[in-house]
């Protein structure tokens, strides 16, 4: 045998053995993955589960499979899915590997299954089944990028997926603040009373970019007991882009408050810390605090912007009985006059305002604190330069917020009952995809 030909021939054979199966997966994808891929464009929300006969029979199985549910559950293995389609009123769909229903007459089920690839999909009623079948008949583009990576996650138990419509149905009126998380998926892992999660999300569907590297670590600074929510990020752009994209928001800002595009640009680029703090008494059940760190060159521009807000606020019936400067001019004389304001309603209750404060410590750069409700007694003291916050970090107390009626009611009960939620979206303001990670601290059984 020619030894000079042996190595090239062996390498070619090895490459063929490796590449041919990979090519086959591209040309002929797994039937189960193919079924999920066909369903994905029609899905608002989806969760994957691992089947186990040792666990209680899910309510959805009993509703969709009727009398056949107990025996099917006992022999079921692998992954099954629950999802909501384009019409949320159609109820939840149950998706199983089609072989799971072998030997079960379709006529014995409440609604005959709809076969999608290698999946059997069971709807709440014939109308919901027909609506999904009609939507699946449309030709859709193949999934790529984020969508393809989400499909891989959804083939395993304990994963969730959402589309923009699904996020809107969950978050309700605050969905516009979550523009960067319009489509995404998470893998879940239960560790005692903590539910860890990781995944990715994008600001639009069909994004091909890779997510930023994950750098999440649980916060070492405990959330104060009276703080319901804390959000910090590299720029207000990550919050405002969804709102300011709407003409119905931009026009009143310009017409009523005189806030121009140049002033909006001033606002967009600032790192921020936002808190929602529970109040013991008074008119408000919670106060909102927003701390910003304007650059020295922008402080006078901010002073002019805030000064222009006084007249419109007074025209709406708010009163400012306290002196405008409130003694801060002398303290900040090195940087010029940076006025404060406190507004009261007609009944004399304090409803909000702003002030410039010195955080102390090494940095003596003044911070701008805006608030709704009574004036905060202490500075947040954590906002820093933009590079300090490469991530958007949220910490919240869902159970407390839900008790006060401040948490979206469409979220799953597990989240609404949680003691604490921590979420980090690891991406800059302009990156199309965010790496997500975090933890949900579940409440102890009572």
Written description of the protein model:
There is one protein chain. The chain is an alpha+beta fold and 446 residues long. The chain is built from 14 helices and 17 strands. Among the domains are: 132 residues, no CATH class; 164 residues, no CATH class. The protein has a 17-stranded antiparallel sheet, with helices on both faces. Strand 7 and strand 8 form a beta hairpin. The longest helix is centred in the first third of the chain and has 25 residues. The radius of gyration is 27 Å and the shape is elongated.
For this entry, give a set of tags.
single chain, 25% strand, 30% helix, 17-stranded antiparallel beta sheet, alpha+beta, 14 helices, disordered N terminus, 446 residues
Dominant shape: elongated
Largest sheet: 17 strands, antiparallel
The SS-based structural class is alpha+beta
Radius of gyration: 27 Å
Quick check: average pLDDT?
81
